[in-house]
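DM from R.C. (forwarded with permission)

"hey, sorry to bug you on a friday — could you get me a structure for this? deadline for the figure draft is monday and I only need the backbone to look sensible"
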Amino acid sequence: MKVLLADDHVLFRAGLASLLKAWGLQVVGQAGNGEEAITNARELKPDLIFMDIKMPGLNGIEATRAIKAQFPEIKVVILTVSDDEEDLFEAIKSGAEGYLLKNLKEEEFADLVSRVGHGEPVMSPGLAKKLLKEFARLKDELRRPEIDASLTERERELLEQVAQGSTNKEIAAALYISENTVSFHMKNILSKLHLRNRAQVATWALGHGYSPTSPS
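My reply, with the result:
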């Protein structure tokens, strides 16, 4: 798995790079701010980006939003010291597949990195409850029965996959359809839900109870 590191602390990046390399991952690049992260993502096409939030210039959440809009297949995991609820919610809404705190123990981090590699969303202990609480609030605020009812069965299946963080290629394989068909259905979903990008679709789907194991 190819990994890009985005953090403005050079020593932290160096230590993290050494750790990841020892675990067999390929660190293909490093960035000191959001702009560099976007440029490196475009040029290096990593599978995974570990993204700090507080960086000079463009911050990590803004960079995540831009990267996920252009390259939804790239997984982004926030790695930060901030356990602020607003940062957590904005990161997930921006399309991040995970949110980890830098105070994790090495064995905990190793397990979470392994789970990311298998396509699972990851989060530091204690943060999941905050996120579920926020999604419950969003569900109450944003549920629009007439829009939800307008979705076709296939569009609902796509939402289940998007909620899991699947790429178009993975969705196509799971539903036995072409990637072009996935894109077609995704455009219809964006139109029906009045959303602008895939990250917003994922947030909407999670907030409305969509998941691969618990269809809405």
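R.C.: lifesaver. The CA atoms of residues 5 and 30 lie 5 Å apart.
me: no worries. Residues 2-128 form a domain with the Rossmann fold fold (CATH 3.40.50.2300).
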